[in-house]
């Protein structure tokens, strides 16, 4: 059969005879007897009912599509190749079956009520009652151990360091698959704090070096895959938690060491509290939205002001040979270092995809969530006190 016999448009639902008349030697024309054309007869597709409203739609007009092609200009992998001449000669062919479009919604149909956004009320984001209670309890333990027996306070620091290391290494393993060796970290961290109290900076550095060596050796007992990653994380944890905490123990070595540690704690807490209070009430401009969206520049200025005022009072009345102007500088430095420490831990938690390092302290999170601003502030306060009033 030549290609010209495919030029006529089909009758409804089947391929009929062409305008050129019946083929000689065949049965009477008709879809039931014309074999060459009967081979091309295809059944009408069943069109599903389209709901008036709702449901998934393939286009803006709401036209539903069946699983197979409805239009002759649509590509089809199962259509015989002899259909191609008809499609080429009749690009405007009608579909086998037209699917009704979804009607427009009635004008009197009930429309959803437009609700006005209710004014948002500022929230602290934590259980303030539990946070205050836990904070007061921790403060009582710290002050009691600080002024009763110094060695007890050193033990408190060591316990906080070990718990903080446990929280940090556990989150690293859970979220990143990093297995920093906890056993050498815990033993070496506690040894660092004790060595810093007993031998000062020299003892702290020696303990840090031995802890790093222990991390290298301990990790060798496991397969080499991830060795560099795990050892690097272990060294970071050793420096971040126990080594920085050692400076608190080194403050305690001075004759007025208990008062120095108390000033360090007061200024850090006042800076955090002042920044929170001012930021919650007057905060408008974000300080570091990508790291900690809740912090504002107004809050930072409030923390600086509160810390400088507290520093002037503490240096004047609590530290031997201290002066109020030294307290202003000390308060400024504490506010900056505490904020950077808080942002630093927020950066770690952002990377890990967590909100808190732990759940040990109700209203606060974990131990590391309370040490975040204290740890980087400890060496700053230790150094400035040594410069201002000596090592004691």
Protein traits:
two-stranded antiparallel ribbon; mainly alpha; disordered N terminus
Describe this structure in words.
With 392 residues, this protein is an all-alpha fold. Helices cover 56% and strands 2% of the residues. It contains 11 helices and 2 strands. The chain has a two-stranded antiparallel ribbon with strand order 1-2. α4 runs antiparallel to α6, α5 packs across α6 and α8 packs across α9. The chain is globular, with a radius of gyration of 39 Å. The N terminus is likely disordered.
Topology diagram in text:
Layout: H1 35-38, H2 84-89, H3 128-148, H4 150-176, H5 182-219, H6 227-251, H7 257-282, E1 286-288, E2 292-296, H8 297-317, H9 324-352, H10 367-371, H11 374-389
Antiparallel strand pairs: 1-2
Mean pLDDT: 78
Judged by helices, strands and strand pairing, the structural class is: mainly alpha
Strand percent estimate: under 5%
Rg (C-alpha, Å): 39 Å
Distance between the termini: 112 Å
Please give the share of residues in helix: 55-70%
* Uncertain stretches: 1-39, 50-88, 95-99, 103-107
Please give the largest β-sheet.
2 strands, antiparallel
Order of the strands making up the biggest sheet: 1-2
User: What's the overall geometry?
Assistant: globular
In short:
By secondary structure, the chain is an all-alpha fold. It has helices at about 35-40, 85-90, 130-150, 150-175, 180-220, 225-250, 255-280, 295-315, 325-350, 365-370, 375-390; strands spanning about 285-290, 290-295. The longest helix has about 40 residues, at about 180-220.
């Amino acid at each position: 059969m030549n290609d010209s016999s495919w030029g006529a448009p089909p009758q409804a639902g089947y391929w009929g005879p062409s305008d050129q008349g019946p083929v000689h030697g065949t049965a009477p024309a008709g879809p039931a007897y014309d074999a060459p054309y009967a081979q091309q007869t295809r059944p009408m597709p069943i069109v599903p009912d389209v709901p008036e409203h709702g449901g998934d739609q393939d286009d803006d007009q709401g036209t539903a599509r069946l699983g197979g092609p409805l239009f002759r200009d649509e590509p089809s992998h199962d259509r015989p190749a002899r259909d191609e001449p008809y499609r080429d000669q009749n690009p405007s062919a009608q579909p086998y079956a037209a699917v009704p479009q979804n009607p427009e919604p009635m004008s009197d149909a009930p429309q959803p009520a437009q609700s006005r956004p209710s004014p948002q009320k500022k929230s602290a984001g934590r259980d303030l009652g539990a946070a205050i209670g836990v904070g007061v309890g921790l403060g009582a333990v710290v002050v009691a151990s600080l002024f009763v027996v110094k060695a007890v306070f050193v033990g408190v620091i060591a316990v906080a360091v070990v718990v903080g290391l446990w929280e940090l290494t556990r989150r690293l393993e859970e979220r990143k698959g990093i297995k920093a060796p906890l056993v050498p970290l815990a033993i070496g961290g506690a040894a660092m704090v004790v060595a810093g109290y007993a031998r000062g900076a020299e003892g702290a550095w020696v303990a840090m070096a031995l802890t790093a060596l222990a991390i290298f050796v301990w990790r060798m007992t496991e397969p080499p895959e991830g060795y560099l990653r795990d050892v690097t994380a272990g060294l970071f944890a050793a420096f971040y938690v126990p080594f920085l905490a050692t400076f608190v123990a080194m403050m305690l070595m001075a004759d007025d060491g208990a008062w120095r540690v108390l000033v360090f704690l007061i200024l850090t807490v006042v800076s955090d509290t002042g920044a929170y209070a001012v930021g919650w009430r007057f905060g408008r401009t974000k300080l570091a939205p990508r790291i900690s969206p809740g912090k504002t520049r107004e809050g930072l200025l409030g923390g600086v002001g509160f810390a400088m005022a507290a520093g002037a009072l503490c240096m004047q009345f609590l530290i031997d040979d201290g002066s109020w102007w030294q307290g202003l500088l000390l308060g400024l430095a504490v506010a900056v270092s505490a904020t950077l420490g808080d942002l630093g831990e927020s950066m770690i938690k952002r990377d890990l995809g967590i909100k808190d390092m732990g759940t040990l302290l109700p209203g606060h999170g974990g131990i590391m969530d309370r040490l975040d601003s204290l740890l980087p502030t400890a060496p700053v306060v230790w150094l400035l006190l040594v410069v201002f009033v000596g090592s004691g």
